[in-house]
């Protein structure tokens, strides 16, 4: 599967702001002001699970997850980082990296189903710019 065949799943496109691309992943910011929440989507067509990636891509994915996690912690001061590749509703492989705080609405439970997303609205452009700057490879 090549990058040229890659298409972002429509649900991810609808729910997220595109931040940019790293060597393997498309970087997204979930359109939810409640949680600082990044999503990494390997730009490989037809991939559903991490084990479906070629070995070098598996290693690169873990490196990019670590870079996104470090940026999220640095930018937000998160008490905990949640990293998950669920894919129950969206089959395309994507990895959630979510900053968690002891005072967030779902703490200490998982965030899903606790409350509907609160869109970023007018803050979307500034959030996109913030994360583009924070996720530069030299950070």
UniProtKB/TrEMBL annotation:
Residues 38-107 form the HIT domain. Keywords: Hydrolase. The keyword Protein transport does not apply. One of its GO terms (molecular function) is hydrolase activity. Pfam families: HIT (PF01230). The keyword ATP-binding does not apply. InterPro entries: HIT-like, HIT-like_sf, HIT_Hint. It comes from the Bacteria. Signal peptide: none annotated. This is Diadenosine tetraphosphate (Ap4A) HIT family hydrolase.
């Amino acid at each position: 599967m090549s990058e040229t065949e890659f298409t972002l799943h429509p649900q991810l496109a609808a729910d997220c702001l595109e931040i940019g691309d790293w060597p393997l992943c498309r970087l997204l910011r979930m359109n939810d002001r409640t949680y600082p929440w990044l999503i990494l989507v390997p730009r490989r067509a037809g991939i559903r699970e991490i084990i479906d990636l070629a070995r070098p891509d598996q290693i690169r994915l873990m490196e990019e997850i670590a870079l996104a996690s470090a940026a999220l912690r640095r930018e937000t001061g998160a008490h905990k980082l949640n990293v998950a590749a669920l894919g129950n509703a969206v089959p395309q492989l994507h990895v959630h990296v979510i900053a968690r705080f002891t005072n967030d609405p779902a703490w200490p439970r998982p965030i899903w189903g606790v409350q509907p997303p609160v869109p970023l609205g007018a803050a979307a452009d500034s959030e996109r710019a913030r994360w583009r700057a924070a996720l530069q490879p030299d950070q």
